[in-house]
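Journal club prep — side note

Before the paper discussion, L.F. wants everyone to see what a predicted structure for a comparable chain looks like in token form. Sequence:
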Amino acid sequence: MSRRKKLYEGKAKILYEGPEPGTVVAYFKDDATAFNAQKKAVLEGKGVLNNRISEYIMGHLNRIGVPTHFIKRLNMREQLLREVEIIPLEVVVRNVAAGSIAQRLGLTEGEPLPRSIVEFYYKNDELQDPLVAEEHITAFNWASTQDIDEMLAMALRVNDFVGGLFAAAGIRLVDFKLEFGRVYDQNDLMRVILADEISPDSCRLWDMDTNEKMDKDRFRRDLGDVTEAYAEVARRLGIIKESTVVSIDEASP
């Protein structure tokens, strides 16, 4: 890894220069952060699990025609991705009241929302990723009206498909965060595609029978057994056979 050129290091991943122009390699770290990195820990095996789960979901999305930056998994901790120009927005899709929307609107956690709600947040850690309206997005040129329409359409399609994927595994998709990026094809035609990852780090996932949390809220709320919960998600999706982190780390790519 030291011989490769590091392009960027975030809270959960490191991006390296890819083997071919227009590609990057994402390395999934075991670092866990919450509350804009005010709370930190290293959870052994978390990066391996997120890599495998995100590969599984992004691969399915590619196959049904949702354009993503995912190309292939390289090994237990790395993915080969198409390089994108990240749009500085977090797109959050909510199906059930939880987290900040429950606090802001005085909703009871676990209460189903009247319909799926899509929210935009400006990606800025110093400002704690504030909620923004479409008027802010277009006024500050973070994205165009067409970009917004494409992100909304893709977000809702991802919600329908991934929600069904999890439901078949006995897991409720409460809400999740997406990021998008711009790519330029031949003749410099720009299009918006899905980027980043989809994993228990970026989703709220509850057991459909017990409402037990199976996502990063276990870390945020000091519930414990974080990687065990991630491993259970992977097991239910059929990605791994045993819900033990040791077997995952020792497995071959």
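L.F.'s comment for the group: The domain at 85-207 is CATH 3.30.470.20 (D-amino Acid Aminotransferase; Chain A, domain 1). Keep this in mind when we get to the figures.
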